[in-house]
Amino acid sequence: MTAQSAPILEIDGLSAGYGPMRVIHDLDLRVSAGEKVGLVGLNGHGKSTLFLAIAGLTHWQRGSIKLKDQEIGRNRSQGPGRYTHQIVHKGLSLIPQGDE
Description:
The protein is mainly β. The protein has one domain (7-82): P-loop containing nucleotide triphosphate hydrolases (Rossmann fold). Helices cover 8% and strands 32% of the residues. A four-stranded antiparallel sheet has the order 2-1-3-4, covered by helices on one side. It is globular and about 40 Å long.
């Protein structure tokens, strides 16, 4: 793999959820620098959970996440302040869901 195509984000076998309910099952994902990725899905299907895991702000059951070749600890032992990215939630829905 060349430096240009080396992934900036690597997710291997990620499983995450809340209590006994898993919303992410064995996810593998590679994103290269400059690549644009969209994530679409219904409410409650794991989009926010995935972003929180990447940010190191939530626990996950299985798998690993590397951001810029740094392992993100799944038990949050490194704390959220270590990473240089943010998540901003907006209360808007661009695609109607369900009975909306």
